[in-house]
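Margin note from the TA: students keep mixing up input and output lines. Inputs are the sequences; the output is the structure of the whole complex. Example:
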Amino acid sequence: MYGVCAGFMATMAAEHGEPYSSFPLHMMQYGAGGVGGWGSLCGALNGGAAVIGLFEQDKQRRENLIAQLFSWYETTVLPSYRPTKDSEPIPKSAAGSVLCHASVGKWCKLSGNEIGSQEMKDRCHRLTADVAAKTAELLNANLREPCKFAGLSAESKSCLSCHSDELHDTIGKMQCSSCHQQLSKEHPAVPDGLLKPSKAPRKSAP
Ligand code: HEC
Ligand code: HEC
């Protein structure tokens, strides 16, 4: 969170001076590790959304920008940023979730590194650069034409068509299957292929 916000503030301060040059940036350090190490919202996304909030005050456009940024993060194989031309590429993964807990956990499992390792930190630093660049790209495009959200994944759209629009028992737009991998036997049928099969072997029906 600090990394993304510091990148924007430094760039804006160099061009425009105040108020960017005296912004109390240290406040953004709370976002590290998914907010104070709680593994909730990825700090890079928290920073991107904060910067979006600074520059876009219209609610609908702001939410569209955040939705574009967050769904890109859930589905894109990252990190792609390389600090220098000669930097070694590192393993990449699609987070499937906006949560630090799942995003970092998945990458560590895939790359064989431990949580807290230098490799993990390098991955999060590069990811931070990717998120800052994406946020700038979206904000610049939004200046030319108001941001429209490309739309939720087919899965979330289908789940929310009942749970949000009809049942009003669910809030949020996160990828449902990142947590709900199996539904009860009583659950109404959902289109095939929407929920990824659970990695754990299913208990065979009695
Ligand atoms: C056709 C409408 C409909 C769709 C589509 C739908 N649900 Fe449901 N869902 C229900 C109803 C009705 C219940 C039972 C009442 C309740 O708990 O609100 C339910 C219950 C649930 C429950 C409670 C536990 C369980 O398994 O029954 C979860 C979790 C859930 N749905 C998640 C999802 C997810 C994730 C999706 C998308 C893959 C989804 N639902 C799609 C209608 C739907
Ligand atoms: C980060 C994990 C996570 C994500 C992502 C998530 N859920 Fe949940 N969901 C939960 C948890 C935890 C509960 C509470 C479960 C409980 O009460 O046992 C819950 C509860 C629910 C319930 C009520 C279940 C009940 O027993 O009444 C529904 C319906 C539901 N979620 C639907 C969805 C839908 C639809 C999506 C996607 C838009 C979604 N969830 C995304 C974790 C998640």
